[in-house]
Amino acid sequence: MIAQNQLAQPFFSASHSGKHRIYIGMAPGVGKTYRMLQDAQALKEEGMDVVIGLLETHNREETAEQAEGLEQIPLLEVNYQNKSLKEMNVEEILARSPQLVLIDELAHTNVPGSLREKRYQDVEYILESGINVFSTVNIQHLESLNDLVAKITGVVVRERIPDRLLDEADEVVVVDVTPEILQERLEDGKIYDVHKIEQSLSNFFQYRNLTALRELALREVADNLEELAEEQSGHKGSNGVQERILVSVSTNPQSSRLVRRGARLVSQLKGRLYVLFVCDPDRFLSKDEGLYIEMCERLCQELGGEFLRVSHPDIVKGIIEVAQQYHITQIVIGHTRQPRWKWFFKRTIVQRLIGSLNGIDLHIIAGS
């Protein structure tokens, strides 16, 4: 399945910046790298100048065979904590200036001290130079899906990419297999070493996990196609009213979870994301609290939202004023448990919002 954001023109049309094709799958082993190499070999046969910028075969013989005959840019050796590590050599790729470069594992985090923190930032830098890129990533690495994937699989994914990369890509190719076939590949030793098979089948590669991840991958690209169709037809939904989602965050460490939940809602509704922090003018934030808010702000920006910080002695009134000013249609807020006796003396923020909002939907997200 391919979701194309530039259907009206050939993928490799001449332009100032390079084109980006992302191969995405539900889990390791579905064949993203294999498919990328297959497509690259076909293009090389047609006369295109193709090189490998970074390839991770994970000792899979079939994948390594697909790379035969393709030029590989030498990796850059980096010394870190008395260890010699290898990273993609971006400057060497730019100097070589191929028509197309293949770059595996888009969500990879570079060695500390590198010019850019993440590999996807290297990819954006290469695209800006006019070089086309094929890259690979798994669905669980999308930032807005982080909490959902952790809930499904019990695994917290540390390396993540902003959702906007899929939106900005010129093509998104879903490499799809059934959970049964993927488990067979795992049992045959085609994904991990033999000593990892049983552990993988009992954890991440459980059938129910793979089924849920596959659904996420297919739905993500389906949403991409639907959005593209709306752009081409000029219709933005049935009533033309864009949803505006406001996520209210606090100094609670769980606030990033609310931001991701709001981002998913925005993606489903094709709306706009706003993240709000109402600070008390009479209260100073501790160092940790300040870091939590900065983290939410960075996350909001990565997810394509607008971060708002207002000063108000009454958090509920602050939220309502911002909601009115920005024509908010839905609000996402966290709910923390409080002793019942407090309810008799002082209404909670959620209770006050329910009683004050007019025509605005309220999503109350329970604490973890």
UniProtKB/TrEMBL annotation:
InterPro entries: Histidine_kinase_KdpD, P-loop_NTPase, Rossmann-like_a/b/a_fold, Sig_transdc_His_kinase_KdpD_N, UspA. SUPFAM superfamilies: Adenine nucleotide alpha hydrolases-like (SSF52402), P-loop containing nucleoside triphosphate hydrolases (SSF52540). Residues 243-355 form the UspA domain. GO terms for cellular component: cytoplasm; plasma membrane. Residues 17-224 form the Signal transduction histidine kinase osmosensitive K+ channel sensor N-terminal domain. CDD domains: USP_KdpD-like. The lineage of its organism: Bacteria, Bacillati, Cyanobacteriota, Cyanophyceae, Oscillatoriophycideae. Keywords: Kinase, Transferase, Two-component regulatory system. One of its GO terms (molecular function) is phosphorelay sensor kinase activity. It comes from the Bacteria. It holds the Pfam family Usp. This is Osmosensitive K channel His kinase sensor. The keyword Transferase applies. The keyword Transferase applies.
